Amino acid sequence: MSASTEGWERLHPRLVIVGASWFLGPLATTAVSAVLAGGLSVSAAITLAGFLAAFLVMASIMVLRWISTRYRITDTAVEIHSGLVFRRKRATSVERIRSVDVTANPVHRLFGLATVVIGTGEQVDSSDSARRLALDGVTRAQADELRTRLLRRAPDAHGDEATLARMDWAWLKYGPLTIWSIAGVGVALGGLYRLLESFGLKPYELGFVKGVYYFFADMSPWAAVPLLVAIVVGLGALGSTALFVESWWNFRLSREDEASFRVQRGLLTTRSLTVDRSRVRGAQITEPLALRMVGAARTNAIATGLGTHEDRSTSPKSALLPPAPIGLAHHVVAEVLGLPDSPQRDVHWRAHPRVALRRRLFRVLQLVLPPVAVVWALGLWLTPVLVRTAWIAGLVCLLAGVWLAFDAYRNLGHGLSGDFLVVRSGTFARRAVALRRDGVVAWEVSQSPFQRWSGLVTLTAAVAAGRNAYRVRDVAVADGLEFAERAVPGLLAPFLEERGERVRSDRAATARHTPQTARS
């Protein structure tokens, strides 16, 4: 073997079948549509022919991809070469590798394949294939071997892993407590409607749909509306529970050694993510309103290289726990950050000025009064029913808005806990973020016109992880600047010196122009 080809490996040839197997979905949908319509319509046949042409194109692309992709792992570097016409060569030092993400969707698992994504600490979104280091189409055994080699683990190291958390099926009750449990029903029905229409079917003409329509049309609105709401909520709860099971089946969070931790989970799509502790810049505990009412929360790591959108509480990549009791969330954060207690719990929250509450109450008036006024005006013109509707809806929305405004104000907070600065805000989803103080690379100080009038400021901590920016909202100017300087000493010094010089010069100018009163 020549030096130019020594050590190079290819993806598995079954990748071609996996890449082209997406055609099975449209084929099954066409078959179902043909059964519902009593035969294959002309539009369905044309659509099917289009899918078949796309299938042939995709199969050709996957063959070329398999032929042209090679990878090599040495003691010092990882190299990936791909492309036939436009060649792309990517390489990174083994010393830069901070995580290895091994995933396998149902089709990959059917053919015994997996995808290995190599994280180097660089912020790269999953859609950026040009910069993303990924091997899509290696066998499961190869994926495990790559993970061991890239992270320099002993082959049997996983046998000594310390388990930090395992799946507890008592957490299943938290699955439906999300807004997506209801919104998902509408999304699914809308997608099904559009899909049937694309095959020339009119869903509202199907016998089953007509039967459902007439069933509710014959009922009193006082009975039909609650029943319909109950059905939608029930379907949403079932869907959310099924999604919870699929996402968190066989969940395990473990500490491989003092330098890394590993998250494993998934029923249909399995995922194994190993993260180097040195790239972790903090953690986020998110309490959506429904979960907060039952004492539960979501937990996510804030780490470099996970992508700019991976700090979301619903992110599958940065999640450390499924929705779980808040006490366990604090425990896991402490373990991952290597602390005796989580910074979100071991912190003295500094209160925000009362003017921040007035700002939130004013927002409620801005949102509620204009639509209520429009409906009320239409009622004066058209019918008194709209007037009564405007008063009732306005009162209900105003009371709910005031409650949410007070809740949002109570949730505001910031403070310092050892090597971490902690920020909390939100009402529909209260987020408490702990960031390493040495990970903050810059502060942004901003003021809206209302904030300037009220003496408030918003501080934004820039971090090379997560969403890259975390805000301390509506804090008093002096308190906010003092907090930023204490959190990261010296970072705001030029700004504070400039501000101090400006204040002194303003005072001097004021003194020069103030008339002096002589006393006898």
Automatic annotation (TrEMBL):
Domain YdbS-like PH: 66-149, 409-485
Residues annotated as transmembrane: 15-36, 42-64, 177-196, 222-245, 364-383, 389-406
Keyword Transmembrane helix: yes
Residue ranges of coiled coil: none
InterPro entries: UCP026631 (IPR014529), YdbS-like_PH (IPR005182)
Keyword line: Membrane, Transmembrane, Transmembrane helix
Transmembrane is among the record's keywords: yes
Protein name from the UniProt record: Putative membrane protein
Species of origin: Saccharothrix australiensis
